[in-house]
Design a protein that fits this description.
Length: 319
């Protein structure tokens, strides 16, 4: 799978003063005028962040304001921004990091507001949506976040700047993202064991079900198997019958799957999709393999496309 270059987050201490009431932001009229001049004369080499009102004195309030107004000083009619990723792409990465600190409703508003502002220039708009693809959707991105990406897709589908043809891909991705979304019921399917016996996801009875869709033999899959096996929390939860692990092979090369059966613990359920229904009907998004889902006893999705570490952390807090 092709990897794309991902810009790293700036160290937290660079953004932290903006979220703390440390009087580092400009607070008088003269400073505001000086800031405006910088924006007018140098829109490319810097991204000027908004001045957070001094009356917002908690970290939560300041993060909320910064998320909503992060791009206020950017002139999206200037397409030259797209040629300076050291400014705009780094700014996007830090913006997404800030969205992790605010409620989902605020993040949704912030993203949709940004894209509305960017409708002034289609080149800028398309550039921002390409950054969303790269950082929020690409399976190679450590910042991948489906919930934030859904906000972007919703904005694209309502945008007057895109024609019907340009909305075909966002529409398809939005439909797939809605399936097995956190807080919804996971889609049921039938799996087949090595001995030919069959079962369904919904027939599994346990407080939690860990669905592990994988291709045995792939490096990332092997690393995830190792991490799950070595987790004391996950191992104990399985031993106490609080978690059932369903490892599912979605492809057709059964010889390859059978060759790696010994890689999986005996207390896992290890099956394959005999009729290829998951792939053919797009029941689950398989753009990233492996993928982990944590489900509750009613098969409601608690974690989607999670890491072994995130699964472990959730179980530590809830079991």
């Amino acid at each position: 799978m092709k990897k794309t270059k991902i810009i790293k987050l700036l160290p937290a201490y660079i953004l932290l003063p903006l979220l703390l009431n440390t009087n580092t932001a400009c607070s008088n009229g003269q400073a505001s005028i000086k800031q405006s001049k910088v924006i007018e004369t140098d829109t490319i080499t810097t991204l000027t962040l908004p001045t957070i009102p001094v009356m917002l004195n908690t970290t939560e309030q300041r993060a909320d304001y910064l998320a909503r107004h992060y791009w206020d000083n950017v002139n999206f009619a200037d397409s030259n921004y797209i040629h300076h990723p050291e400014v705009t792409e780094q700014g996007w990465v830090n913006f997404i990091d800030i969205l992790q600190l605010v409620p989902a409703s605020t993040a949704d508003i912030a993203l949709k507001t940004l894209l509305t502002q960017a409708e002034k220039e289609k080149k800028c708009y398309m550039y921002l949506t390409s950054l969303a693809d790269k950082y929020l959707y690409d399976p190679n991105s450590p910042m991948r976040n489906e919930e934030l990406y859904i906000s972007v897709l919703d904005a694209m589908l309502k945008s007057p700047i895109l024609d019907d043809t340009e909305k075909i891909r966002p529409k398809a991705r939005r439909s797939l993202a809605q399936k097995n979304r956190i807080g919804t019921k996971a889609l049921d399917f039938t799996y087949t064991l090595a001995n030919g016996k069959q079962g369904t996801l919904y027939a599994l009875k346990a407080p939690y079900t860990l669905l592990f869709i994988n291709n045995p033999g792939c490096h990332a899959c092997n690393e995830t198997i190792k991490a799950l096996k070595q987790s004391p929390t996950i191992s104990q939860a399985i031993a106490q019958h609080k978690v059932k692990v369903l490892s599912l092979y979605p492809d057709i090369d059964l010889a390859e799957w059978q060759k790696h059966l010994s890689d999986f613990p005996s207390d896992w359920i290890n099956g394959y999709d005999k009729k290829q229904m998951i792939d053919q009907k797009n029941l689950y998004d398989l753009k990233a393999i492996p993928t982990l889902y944590l489900l509750d006893k009613d098969k409601t999705v608690l974690l989607k496309d999670a890491t072994a570490e995130e699964i472990e952390e959730y179980l530590q807090k809830n079991i």
